[in-house]
Amino acid sequence: MAAGKHPILVIGYGEVGHAMEYLLAARQPMQFWDIHPVAGHEAVELEQAAAHAEFVIFCIPVSPLAEVAGRVLPHLSADSISLTVAKGLDANGRPAPAIFDDVYAGAHDYGVLYGPMIAEEIMHGRPAFAQVGCSRPGVYARIEALFQGSGLVLQYSDDVPGIAWSSVLKNVYAILFGAADELALGDNVRGYLAVAAIREMTAIVQAMGGDAATVTQLAGLGDLVTTATSSSSHHHELGRQLARGEYRDSPSEGVHTLAMVEQHDLLDREQYPLFNLVQQLVTERSGIEQRIRAYMQSL
Known about the structure:
With 299 residues, the chain is of the alpha/beta class. The protein has helices spanning 15-24, 46-51, 65-72, 96-104, 119-122, 140-147, 160-182, 187-207, 218-229, 234-244, 253-263, 273-284, 288-297, and strands at 8-11, 30-33, 55-58, 81-84, 109-114, 128-134, 152-156.
């Protein structure tokens, strides 16, 4: 370890963990922990590594976030910052910042990064973009310094609920874009879906305590365009599979979001017909084209 430098601890070494390594390995020493051995890296003990880390980057889905954050909590140094890019809801219906608020209870600072930042593109040296929400405004300067010059362009947002819910919702709507593309419904339909999705996302974000303007920024519109149109997008591909009748249950933040919204009665889905349509497509998994065309004819 370089003198005077504290390592970055990356928890989870999937695509996002690899992307963080690409962005940051030349800047500070890094350690990696995963439930499976991390090839090419020295094995570390989670709690010990967390105790010495200046930044702890959680590159894991939102579902295990509370458990893992609770595990490292007693060992974090007082000035450490926890980061995550997890875009979903946990089993209690909470997005990532709400989990940090509950688990850390103000004892440690955190930041959440949401925006167009597909891991495959990052690892090919292409630019990526994210809005950053923090547990308190002063934390942003350190996060910005960490990523300065890395290829990940950051913007500060003081609307933590807004960027969190924007990032959660775009995964849901992206499924519909994939289905429409598979059915070759055309560019006109894609344009309509973009407007309708942003309209519904805006209403939901406001209902969840966020600002309407946030939905048209990186964590909302920016990430929706990326996720809803990219060939690298898991949720776009999921929509295509649904339209082909090939979808089988697999880990997906968008599908899990739909389940948690229903389980915890977070929304009145009848107020959001496009969201409700995606719910029907994922739940019923039949008559996909007929359902979408019936929706279009009802407009």
